[in-house]
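input
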Amino acid sequence: MPVVEPRVVKPGFNARVYAVVRQCPAGHVTTYGQVATLLGSPRVARHVGFALAALLRTDEPVPWHRVINSQGRISHRGDVHRAQEQRELLEREGIVFDERERVDVLRLLGGHPRVLEFADAYLGQQRGALRFADIGERIERLVGRSRAALPQDLDEASTAERLALARRLAAEDVLLQALLGTLDEATRRLLEAIAVYRRGVPADALDAAARAVGLAWSAGERSAAVRRLESRTLLTQTGAGEREEDGRARTWTRSWMVHRWTAAELLPDGGAKAAHEAAARWWLAAKPLAWEDGLEGVEHLLAAGIDDEASKWADGMREHAEQTGQGIAALALCERMVEAFVRPDYHGWLWSMNLGDLLLQFGAIHRTQRLYERAEGIAKDLVERDRWSWLLQRSLSVSYNKLGDLHRGLGNGEQARRYYEDDLAIAKQLVEREPGRSDLQRDLSVSQERLGDLHRGLGNGEQARRYYEDALGIAKQLVEREPDNYQAQGDIAIAYERMATVDPNGAAEWLTEAVGIHRRRRAQQPDHAITQRELAIVLVQLGQAQGRRQDHEDAAASLAEADALLRDLDARGALEAEYRPTLDIIDRLRTAAG
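output
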């Protein structure tokens, strides 16, 4: 390894290095760069190392082992024995190394993630050589802005005590306040505006936030302000970026970001709502919208207090994530929105329900129940305040349905019945208010079918039949109103299928009616795989009912048609895996029938 000779430095340089290093007390470390900065020459960090290496040729008492590199590691410069000796000396003083042989420099310097940068930037504006004690003295002048309490006998404090105080204050806000104090008012306003961004953004995003707080700067003025902030380490560059806008790819070579600790200290109230709204518009302007950009936009909308739009954007993102199989991403988004909407309002209801639905898919039954019950409580309170709101009544109805389904799945039939009956009461009330609305009529029929399903599962056949008959009556009315309505036809077909389950003697007739409707629906959408599959499944049920009635010829025809429909779907790759066993069932039924 070639030896790098130190450049010529001013006479007395080594002595000045030793004087600074002696002030680093036991149990603490500093870095070559920090020592160089305190000497007033930040670029001579390497020469600090040379000066300490020269101690091998002297007997000067200097705690050289307390100086390490900026990564928290020992720089042995090829001398392994010297490095081992340094580590042993540090460990005796209580310094701990991690598994990667690094010292936690930041913790030893006060825990502030940017204390070195702040100190360097602050001291870099001063002239002349500085000592650790000088830091303490200068910070003391600013202590009125600090949250820390100073000891009464500071004048008699030792250098080590002053150093400890300097570290403690640096871990808070004093050095930051010192840097902020060097800014003109307009640059400070720019900093506060762009501090709302949580990720690096290009110049036009900075401009958007600046305009939102009333700064109408030219590009040159903005660039000058950015340079001022960068020179004080209040703003950092974060690299290039790209996204699609107006159908074209747009790239930028530089982005900027205010450090998050700085932003938190600078914006105790979260920042100007106008700046957050401008930031949201910038993030959400992209086409198509990246998931991470959408999250940023939603966060800014929340910070700006634009709750309705934030909830709408987030709900659209949730739906997309679920539809594309990104359940974990959807779950994290729902968790965040529940945290954001803690108030007992409609958004609090919506996101409690959304999160509960997702958690149910992951099998988290008990937490799902708590969320559903929270949503139910919110909806009840909202309905009490506004009994004429269809949206709020509908929300409470959904809560009852979800809780009913949950308890039914857990085997709590009586509890499920109570929830379903509460839902039915709301559905009837809404229909009475607006009898001409088909959507409310359909909701009522669904509520009746739910109760019918529950009673059928509990063995209450007659009770189930009454609910199914009521649902069928509504379905017939809706089809009479809109005979070509695809959904209405599907509803009445399902109503016929349910009637077949509680009327064994008339099952074939009910299912024949259902098959006729499914045929008409398929004629409307001949290439629709789900419609074809639904027809096939009902034909299987019809074939079974006909077989029980000894109508073997009709049963064989129904099963043959069902088999042909399903095999056609399978050949096209359009038959879902869960329905493939139906082909085996058909084969067994046809074999048994001879």
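quick obs: The longest helix spans residues 365-385.
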